[in-house]
UniProtKB/TrEMBL annotation:
This is DUF5403 family protein. Pfam families: DUF5403.
């Protein structure tokens, strides 16, 4: 079967969109994301440092999202999920940001495998972190 045949439209819609609008699909997605949020909340509580990060769900027309948000804290959601590298002051060599392993909260909650370790941890700009701490 050639690729164009595989993605033929059904009733004027692509196959994925057709399936998304079938009865019960939205409710199943809501249920799946609700359960994943409960798992993510439990995981986040175990690792809470200052308590600013939170997990919430967002519902679009067809899609459902599970979101890790740290906008109330240091905007560190990406570091919480994937980890971060150590960052030192280039002049003094002082450690400004300690290295941290990622918690992969969303990955675990959704039953996904961790990303390839070759991808690496997030590089954090020390100046951005200093500015966040100043504003607190």
């Amino acid at each position: 079967m050639s690729e164009p045949e595989l993605y033929k439209a059904i009733g004027g819609k692509k196959l994925e969109k057709y399936i998304a609008y079938l009865p019960g699909v939205g409710e199943a997605m809501d249920s799946h994301v609700f359960e994943a949020k409960a798992r993510a909340d439990a995981e986040l509580v175990e690792h809470r440092f200052q308590g600013h990060a939170r997990v919430f769900t967002k519902k679009a027309k067809l899609d459902r999202y599970l979101v890790l948000d740290d906008s109330r804290g240091l905007d560190a959601a990406m570091s919480i999920e994937f980890g971060r590298k150590e960052s030192r002051d280039p002049e003094t060599g002082e450690v400004l940001i300690t290295e941290m392993e990622g918690l992969f909260i969303l990955h675990k909650a959704m039953g996904l495998a961790r990303p390839d370790k070759r991808r690496g941890k997030v590089d954090v700009d020390p100046d951005v972190v200093k500015e966040k701490w100043r504003r607190r």
